[in-house]
Amino acid sequence: MLSRVFKGKLLILHVFVAFLCVDADVNAQIDSLLIAPLKEKKSLTYGLNNRRTYLLGDPSTIYGVYFGIQYGERLKHVITYNNNLFWAGNNEQVRVQFLGFAEEYTFYSVGRFEFVSYIHIGVGFASYRNLTLPHEHQFYDELISPVELGVHGSLRIYDRLKFKTGAGYRFVLLDKEHDLDGFYYKVGASLAVGTIWNSFQNKKANH
After folding, report:
1. CA distance 204 to 193
2. pLDDT digits over 70-125, tens only?
3. Tell me, which fold does domain 41-196 have in CATH?
4. Domain boundaries of the chain, sorted by first residue
5. Which helix H or strand E contains 26, and what residues bound it?
6. What is the widest separation between alpha-carbon atoms in the chain?
7. HSE of 124 in the Cβ direction (CA atoms, 13 Å)?
8. Angle at Cα 126 formed by Cα 128 and Cα 55, nearest 5°?
């Protein structure tokens, strides 16, 4: 009887120790993935964020700019402004504009290649003007909340120059017709202007 009780307690102890090990491993992974990047060196980041896409069934471009904070080499948090003015057919003019918050996280890197997860959430307006209606009824504004999810990649060509590309999907919440939803892709390059300027200043100071 004692042997069974002892074995039962030993089994419970093993399960408890295993749970602690798993919990510690999970906590370590959470710290490595989510907490540790926030402790890395911070720097300002800014640039363009243009995406080719389809709006109301027609090919178009959402033009964007961003400004924010980069944590080391893995994590970036930015505020964005996005805008586009286009024609839907011959008689309807549409403007899509919104402010957003985006996070980019480098989840895998090998050699000169990097792969980044991209989450972008915004709020703004889609403004419609239908020229076939009387002037007082031509304008209509709709509150929208775009959500973009994607995977982007980059190839480092030189230390301060990267070729970038990426793709994802945009869900537009509050859009009743869902005709602003759609895939997007982007192709471009980034140049570390701040790093180049600091290097130039250091060389100038040493002479």
Report:
1. 16
2. 998 889 999 999 999 998 877 889 999 999 999 999 999 998 899 999 999 999 99
3. Porin (2.40.160)
4. 2-37, 41-196
5. helix 2-30
6. 92
7. 20
8. 90
